[in-house]
Amino acid sequence: MFFNAIRKSLRAKLILASVIVEIIMLSILLSNSMRIINNTINEQNTLRFELINPLLASSLTNELFARDYASLSDIIINIIQSSKDNFVYIAVYDDDNKLYFKAGEFSESDLVNEARVTDSSQVDILNLSTNLMLGGQQIGKVRYGLSNTSLIASKTNLLKQGLIIAILEILLTALLIGLAGYFLTRHLYALIQGMSKVQQGIYEVSLNIQSEDEIGKLSQVFGQMTEAIQERVVALENEKELIQVTLESITDAVITTDDKGDIQYINSICEGKLCCKLADFEGRYITDLFKINDSAERVVPNPVEECLKKDTIILSGQFESVSSLEGEIIKIEYTASPIHDKLNSIIGVILAFRDITIRIENEIELKNYRDNLELLVKQRTNELELSNKELESFSYSVSHDLRAPLRSIDGFSRALEEDYGSDIDEKGKDFISRICNATERMGKLIDDLLNLARTARYDINVVKLNLSDKVSVIANRLKQENEGRNVEFIIQDKIFIYADAILIDSALENIIGNAWKYTRFNEKAIIEIGENIVDGKQIIFIKDNGVGFDNEYSEKIFAAFSRLHKAADFQGTGIGLATAERIIKRHHGSIWAEGKVNEGSTFYFRLDE
């Protein structure tokens, strides 16, 4: 418990270190003091020896030589009683080293210790001796013992006082160090408490450390760090919320896992498809929720496991399905993609899948429709071929059977006029002329209808054509056939198109012929042919300054037999523009017209849209 508290507390460590240092210093001081005391005791004892030895020698030499036992006894007893040196015993030996007199008690071991003791501060009795000399000769020896108890007691008292002072000093030092440690570390402890709050997810930490030292600077850095962390946490929360909103907004079902395959997130689409809740499967392994079967109801490798193993995108195979928790079989297609961190280490997988059950059913139904359609197309093709044959028969009938009566009517009318012209009045001749003109118009109408029908059946051969040259040929022919007309053609050079040469000639003759016809009343007619490029598309225009038309009826102008002007003013069958429209549409193009009454008209067309 004690060492555990020391290990966890900086203040305790400071106090313990200070106490240890103080103990070491006081131990050194006490040891040095004891050495000084011992040296002092030894010096004092040495001084006592130097004083006592001459005194004993001068007092006892003559009495020993005279063998005056009584005087020797009185002197020794007097020395013991009157001396301040605390004699324990005094023993006098003659020249044969025989005990002559003794006062006090001693043992032979004391005499032995006399030679062994070198440190007088360590013994209670100092055993000493000195020789008695007379006339340069030794006549005896005196041995004595001095009590050292008082010095030892003084030494012990000093040692006790030193220990008490040392203990008090250690306690005082510990207290002072504890107080100093508290004031030095209180800000540090505040920092530690702030860090603990940050560790718990509490980032709004205010330390209020008003200090300019290193800890104060550290607290400032800590405050900046917590602000940065808080901003980053807010950014991460916003990013997480954005990701969740994104995953919730897409129409695919989404499951995310960690690098072990444990489920972390399921969006609402997935919850609806698999009849599950995120709270029930969060942290559980992917196969607890998502198991894939093939068309034979065999379990196939889980895409998340394969993605984690191979670190690559895993795509679904054909005819794979997954079962919801309620047992519904859902045909799916999926993509499992690895998620990497900044070090390109895989940290998870995102699995997205969609329910294609309805699509597969639609594809099966569409295939059935396609098979039926092929049969229907074949049937319609046969019917169309039959219709074409019937149309060819009709065209043959029109060409031969209808023309024969017209030729008879026209021939008999002209014969009647030539043979009986003198018998017919002017009114009758007018009737005959009208009959001939009507049969001529009827023949022209039959020709136009046949051309319109042939246009639908004609096989197109698209080549590159110089439209400018073709328009020039048509313009020259019209001028030669109508030399009295004053018509100016403005033809843009080098207009190239891709079209069928025969069909496009027919379309141009009808459109330009239309412009030629409706400018017949102009003193000077102007017909302009050119091209415009609009959004990268080529548009051909044919513009005239003729009678024009009301733009409200622009859609009717291409209808067969539709006329916007009187037939008496402008001859024609009403088939020409319908034929031109059909030719343009056979080139996958479009044609339209714009006009104003008495201001002319403009026809536009483009090919191969």
Structure description:
The chain is 55% helix and 20% strand. It has 609 residues and is an alpha+beta fold. It folds into 4 domains: 2-170, Beta-Lactamase; 250-355, Beta-Lactamase (2-Layer Sandwich), CATH 3.30.450.20; 358-457; 460-606, Histidine kinase-like ATPase, C-terminal domain (Heat Shock Protein 90). Strands 5, 6, 7, 8, 9, 10 and 11 form a 7-stranded antiparallel beta sheet that branches. It has a 5-stranded mixed beta sheet with strand order 13-15-16-18-17. Strands 2-1-4-3 form a 4-stranded antiparallel beta sheet, with helices on both faces. A hairpin with a 4-residue loop joins strand 5 (253-258) and strand 6. The two termini are 93 Å apart. 19% of the residues are buried.
CATH architecture tag of the largest domain: 2-Layer Sandwich
Annotation, overall tally of beta strands: 18
Largest sheet: 7 strands, antiparallel
Number of domains: 4
The quaternary organization reads as: single chain
CATH fold-level topology of the largest domain: Beta-Lactamase
CATH C-level category of the largest domain: Alpha Beta
Unreliable stretches (pLDDT < 50, length at least 5) are none
Q: Evaluate the radius of gyration.
A: 68 Å
Return the average pLDDT rounded to an integer. Answer: 78
What is the global morphology?
rod-shaped
Content-based structural category = alpha+beta
Distance between the termini: 93 Å
Continuous helix count? 14
Q: Could you estimate the helical fraction of the residues in percent?
A: 40-55%
Fraction of residues in β-strands: 15-25%
